[in-house]
Design a protein that fits this description.
Elements (H helix, E strand, L loop, with lengths): L3 E5 L6 H9 L17 E7 L2 E7 L12 H15 L2 E7 L6 H13 L3 E6 L6 H4 L12 E2 L8 H14 L15 E6 L6 H9 L17 E7 L2 E7 L13 H15 L3 E7 L6 H13 L2 E7 L6 H14 L8 E3 L11 H12 L5 H14 L8 E8 L4 E6 L7 H15 L7 E6 L10 E3 L5 E3 L9
Parallel strand pairs: 1-3, 1-4, 4-5, 5-6, 7-9, 7-10, 10-11, 11-12, 14-15
Antiparallel strand pairs: 2-3, 8-9, 13-14, 16-17
């Protein structure tokens, strides 16, 4: 539906900064450290009333050894080039061309895709004296931009659209409505197999996978369709203890992106390693999910490496140590063999439906009255009425005479009773208590008006002196 525009270049030319400027959001982590971006990052951007799918890529550093991190980054960039309809080849406009620039240009040239050479950092005066150098690449006239100061961005958008028109790309006026898509995040501590699970879903290497903890830095969101249902799957960076993030700024930003993805999710997949004991960090990530009030599925990955007896022991351990997620369904998966990976989506669909459930107020109040009779609240506490005020998550407000008298155990009792009656499997319920003010508005004089309604009595006008 949308043209794909990949931003490619050697490290530290400002690809992520330009990407954030074009999508007008801070989606990609930016840093002066070379190699900050590793995975491909996707986002829709408005190009003069047209929508373009932008792809940010890692820097192409060709001084690598086989099976190294740089090798994986180059593979991701190569995939982005192969899938693109137009390529933005970004160079540093203040520097001479390097060997990596020439090698990156050769990689792009082999794809035979339309290419725009873009010289970044146009806010510096030295770019004009260097501009003639970039003609050596044989890619046409360079486009000057500054991702930081928004210089030349409109001109770049125009050039991209002109290039797409010249390549006979057929635009569509339809805009993607993502409100109906189920947003799913893969969360957990590092090295539990989140990226491997996402790749297993697509049956393709969409994101980088490595045994090195902290490989994923940015949150990578990918659209996915299964059984005519639309999803947005987000791979997030592993969340470590805050003490270990003290001196690593990049990892701090990665964890912030992970928590932001959680806040915008409908369902969170809490991924844990089935071969390891439940750690404090696993429980800490579970607390983040519980506080966010999202739907949740507990995913025990690497299940092909443990026996049935160990699986039962693992389930008992989770129920004992994480009772606050008692409502979460649990599933064993294996990203390596693909076991139960696609079984996640029927569970996600059920949770999403439950989060949208609306309960009739009259029926709800009748049921709550029955629950109050079975287990009466603290003496002096009186319940007036209960209303469901929101969905996704289901949110209920109980109007009482004094909310300070509500004990946390009674709130838990009401939570369990609502689940017994209406399900709500896999999702948090937000229960709030408010003081009820039953007193009518104060009027000086009230008289019975027409149709049985109360109306203020008209006061006689005082005669003028």
């Amino acid at each position: 539906m949308y043209p794909i525009c990949a931003i490619v270049g050697r490290p530290n030319t400002g690809k992520s900064t330009l990407f954030n400027r074009l999508v007008r959001k801070r989606l990609a982590i930016t840093s002066e450290l070379a190699g900050t971006t590793r995975d491909r990052i996707f986002a829709l951007a408005d190009f003069h009333e047209r929508q373009v799918m932008l792809v940010d890529t890692g820097g192409l550093d060709f001084g690598y050894d086989l099976e190294s991190m740089e090798d994986n980054i180059i593979k991701q960039s190569q995939t982005a080039v192969d899938e693109a309809d137009v390529i933005i080849f970004l160079v540093d406009g203040t520097c001479d061309l390097t060997s990596d620039d020439y090698k990156a240009c050769e990689l792009i040239r082999k794809s035979q895709k339309p290419v725009l050479i873009v010289a970044n950092k146009a806010d510096r005066s030295s770019i004009d004296s260097n501009l003639h150098i970039f003609y050596e690449l044989g890619l046409g006239e360079p486009v000057k931009v500054s991702g930081i100061l928004n210089i030349g961005i409109d001109n770049l958008k125009t050039k991209v659209l002109e290039t797409l028109v010249d390549s006979n790309f057929k635009f569509t006026s339809k805009r993607e409505e993502d409100d109906d898509r189920v947003k799913v995040s893969f969360l957990g501590k590092p090295n539990v197999g989140k990226s491997s699970l996402l790749n297993s879903v697509f049956n393709d290497e969409k994101v980088m996978v490595s045994s090195t903890p902290g490989t994923t830095r940015d949150s990578v969101s990918l659209p996915f369709e299964y059984n005519d249902n639309q999803y947005v799957l987000t791979d997030t960076a592993g969340i470590r203890r805050s003490g270990k993030l003290r001196f690593d700024k990049l990892e701090k930003y990665s964890v912030m992106r992970s928590l932001q993805s959680l806040e915008s999710s409908d369902v969170a997949l809490l991924v844990m390693d089935a071969t390891e004991k439940l750690s404090k960090q696993d429980m800490r990530v579970a607390e983040f999910i519980s506080e966010a009030k999202t739907g949740v599925v507990i995913v025990l990955n690497k299940a092909d490496l443990i026996s049935p007896a160990e699986k039962n022991a693992k389930v008992n351990e989770i129920h004992y140590k994480m009772p606050f997620l008692h409502y979460a369904p649990l599933i064993f998966t294996s990203a390596r063999t693909g076991t139960n990976v696609m079984q996640l989506f029927p569970i996600i669909d059920d949770i999403f439906i439950v989060r949208k459930k609306e309960i009739n107020t009259r029926e709800l109040n009748y049921y709550i009255d029955v629950c109050l009779d079975k287990h009466q609240p603290k003496p002096g506490l009186k319940f007036k009425v209960v209303k469901q005020v929101a969905t996704n998550p289901p949110t209920f407000v109980f109007f009482v005479n004094d909310k300070s008298l509500v004990h946390f155990s009674y709130k838990r009792y009401l939570d369990n009773k609502l689940r017994d009656k209406y399900g709500f499997t896999g999702t948090a319920i937000d229960i709030n208590f408010r003081d009820s003010k039953a007193k009518p508005p104060k009027f000086k004089t009230l008289t019975r008006g027409k149709k049985g309604k109360f109306a203020p009595k008209k006061l006689k006008k005082k005669p003028k002196k």
